[in-house]
Write a structure and sequence with these properties.
Blueprint: E1 2-4, E2 7-9, H1 16-55, E3 59-63, E4 66-70, H2 74-79, E5 90-93, E6 96-99, H3 102-122, H4 126-139, H5 149-157
Parallel strand pairs: 4-6
Antiparallel strand pairs: 1-2, 3-4, 5-6
Helix pairs in contact: 1-3, 3-5
Length: 164
C-alpha cells in the first residue's frame, strides 16, 4: 500500500488506474485546504462578523463550504455601507458571506460566490486590491462600486441585478 501525504491510498489489489484516481482526490483535497488557508486571514474577520450576527439575533449556516450569516447587527451595518448607494444586500469576507436577511443570501448567492473565488485568487491581498480598484475608478471619474473590475466580474456571473 502506498502513502501520499501520510495517508494510505489504494489497496495492493487495486488497479493502477484506481491508485491514480486516489492520488488525484488527495491532491484536490490538498488544493482545497490551501485555498482555505490562503483566504484565512480574511475569513477570520468574516467569522467575527458572523459571530456578531448570531449573538445579536441573526442566523448562520454553511452552504457549499461557505459560512453564511444574516440579520442581527449585521443588517443595519450593511444598510449603511458608505461606498454602495443604498447599502448592500450582502458582502463577502473570505469564505464568509454576510447578508441583511436569509432571503438576501439566496438572491445574492451566485454573485457572492464569485467574490469567494476572487478571495481564493487574491488571498490576503484581496481587500487591498478591491479598495485600490475602487479608488482608481473614482479617480477616473467612474463609479467606485459598479465600475470596480471585481464587481464587474461578479455581476457578469450574476443572473439577478441586485446590489450585493
Amino acid at each position: 500500500m502506498r502513502r501520499v501525504a501520510g495517508q494510505a491510498i489504494g489497496h495492493p489489489h487495486h488497479s493502477p488506474a484506481m491508485r491514480r484516481i486516489a492520488v488525484l482526490v488527495t491532491l484536490l483535497d490538498m488544493r482545497h485546504l490551501f485555498l482555505y488557508l490562503w483566504t484565512s486571514p480574511n475569513t477570520l474577520v468574516g467569522l467575527m462578523w458572523a459571530f456578531l450576527a448570531r449573538l445579536t439575533g441573526g442566523g448562520w449556516s454553511v452552504h457549499t463550504g461557505v459560512v453564511e450569516a444574516h440579520g442581527g447587527w449585521v443588517k443595519p451595518i450593511l444598510q449603511r455601507l458608505p461606498f454602495v448607494k443604498d447599502g448592500a444586500l450582502a458582502i463577502t469576507i473570505g469564505h464568509v458571506v454576510l447578508a441583511q436577511t436569509e432571503a438576501a443570501l439566496s438572491v445574492t448567492r451566485e454573485h457572492e460566490r464569485v467574490h469567494v473565488r476572487q478571495y481564493q485568487r487574491w488571498g490576503p491581498l484581496f481587500v487591498l486590491a478591491y479598495v485600490g480598484a475602487g479608488v482608481w475608478m473614482w479617480v477616473c471619474g467612474k463609479d467606485p462600486y459598479r465600475d470596480n473590475p471585481f464587481e464587474v466580474e461578479a455581476y457578469g456571473f450574476d443572473s439577478s441585478e441586485q446590489d450585493a
